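Aim 2, interim progress: modelling of the iron/sulfur cluster-bound target.
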Amino acid sequence: MTAVIEQKIRVGFVTLGCDKNTVDNEYLAGLLKRDGMAVEVANEAAPPDVVVITTCGFLQAAKDQSKEEIRRWARVRKRAGTRLGVIGCLAQRSGEELLREIPEIDFLAGVGDFERVAKLVAGEGKSRFVTNTNGESWDLAQQSASAADETMTAQSDIDFDDRAFKKNAPRIVIPRTLPRQRMDRRPHGFLKISDGCNHTCTFCSIPLMKGVYSSVPRQVLLDETKRMLDDGVREINIVAQDITKYGLDLEKRMMLPELLNDLASLEGEFWLRLFYLYPSTVTKDLIAVMKAQPRIARYLDIPLQHLDEGVLRRMKRPHDRARTMDMLRMLRSELPGVTLRTTFIVGFPGESNDEFQTLLDAMDEIRFERLGVFTYSREEGTPAAQLPNQLPEKTKQRRKEKLMKRQAQISAEWAQAQIGTERTCLIEGRVPDSDWYVARSESEAADIDGVVRVRSARELHSGEFIRARISDADVYDLTAEII
Ligand code: SF4
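Predicted structure of the complex, ligand included:
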């Protein structure tokens, strides 16, 4: 008698956007695997039974990329019968519009509510929903078009301080430890400690999609971290929209230092790396825990967006420049060797040459080791989109190039100064057919910074920590010999 092999439903994932989307997809993949499905990174050459596209709606470019990807899989659906699911930020924000534009979409879900999305993937339940402030889901299908449109339209010209907005905004709730299935086998993973944001930066559409600040319970984060460490992760990247506010919605106090202490006290050899610190809430307690816990990498990502007080005011961001510069100087003196990463937006409405010059001056003083520069993107539904004096794209590009050119010099000078120093490096992998390895030290975050190329006669393994001496450098990458 021949055994009947039950074919598992194959679910393919397309992850667009930020590291928070990576975590969300790992939750969903974990739930689907729990429910007996096979999960994989979607590959058009071997179409899965179901494809789940996690979209991004942050900038126009990201929205265009999301729609392009949905249309690409709509063609695969026609040819191979793959069910097409669309989730995440763009679906949360513009679900109705997407369904009108791409009727091939089989199911659509906003942000969060992963258990419910898992049912949709399995073909159960209402096929279209977005998430509301209680973390529950509204059935787009059931909800009368006008109400849905009302929600969608209401979001499009709202002032973030608007109580109504806060009343209707989504809230992503992770009530308990969810199974997580990592898609990427590299030695780093992401720990999303909260989602959503209560800040009101006038250029930013994230609160429209991710809603209000919602911390993940501490025990859930400890469980997730232990599981990642058991699964071979050796670098835990701590992410959110703003990690400094962790716990404020849970216990009315900022609990990031305590959380980091707990995480850094777990068994094993690993690093914690901190991203998305809000400039006005980088506290002495945070610096104290970084000094006390060697597992916390001497690396801080503090998106400043700008450093001219006039522009910061128009951005509705902390605009006390002197205080911000003092905080950055304090980090330099309290945490010797710390690597500072920041992000600037150039070409914000009304940005004058003088205002732009303040950025160049600050770069020369603080000398950020790592810098990302974005040109201002006029995003529908954000207050800044209504501001006068929108600048031409040419001006924005010119200013971005000027900043990146200056940063390349600063980065090259920093890299040269590393020659001869010794540092601990995390091995990512081997360069095929060579005794070279790709690695990163505390100064290089995965995918956004350079790497350390390490030569070693003895075989090294992904996830291994080694000591190396820097022997050479170029603009962003270092070369080293194992010691
Ligand atoms: S803090 Fe970040 S996510 Fe929050 S509104 Fe400002 S830019 Fe957007």
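The pocket of iron/sulfur cluster is lined by residues 197, 199, 201, 204, 206-207, 241-242, 278 (CB under 6 Å). The longest helix spans residues 393-417.
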